[in-house]
Fold these 2 entries.
Entry 1:
Amino acid sequence: MTSEFDPSTALYYGDSVATGYGHGGAEGNRNSDARWGRGAGRVFEVLSSRPEGTFKGKDIVLSSGVLNSGLDIDTVRKQLELLQGRGARSIRLLGTPKTGTRFAGYNDKLRTLSNELGVTFLGGYEAGDDGVHP
């Protein structure tokens, strides 16, 4: 049985990009699903702290935190494997800005990892005036 992805019922985790897409841009706090400035390691900690059953059968949109911590691909792998292992119905991984040198190569590595794990990679995006956020 397949059903369409519904962004209004998805769970959004990660950094400021996730807050923008799923939480109205709110800053969040230490324990919220998404928070401004959160790095990949902290995103993994937050995902790990959620009770068993939180992700089961849910659509997840993940902004991994690499915008804040650098391209820690091993930690992003752990994030995705945790979500898969806890029964997420689908996972959509957000990319980084397409232009500029600050995040050069990030989207290629995130795409490769997504393909390897069978996760949907949403690709890079056009950044706004700050060079980071859509």
Entry 2:
Amino acid sequence: MQRVEIINLEKETARAIMLNNATFFRRVYGEDFSGTLSQGQTVDKNQLINVVQSSGAHYQSFTASDIQVKLFQETAIATCLWSSRGTYQGRQVDTQMRVMHVYINSPRGWHVVAGQTTPLPPYGPHPL
């Protein structure tokens, strides 16, 4: 059951990015979130929300696939493949990235506390 919850959260993350929906990140990402985006920039929760809301990216599709979840008591590690198609800075971009999220289970449910995004070749501009 917990594995299914994490898989659903990973799919919801991709959908929230596609829709530039910051509400999802406010609800699911922990206040102490720390992440690294595809160009190496480190972000906290508020910075990530700003990137999602104001990236200038417009997606036709953004999906999470090949989702793998490892559970360790109240901690989960999720890895997946993000595939997106859209426009960024006026150019058509098709990207794939490997992503890792660390989740902690609390009385309020699963929260992402850390994340790492790694672009796959060919490399192109992308806000995340």
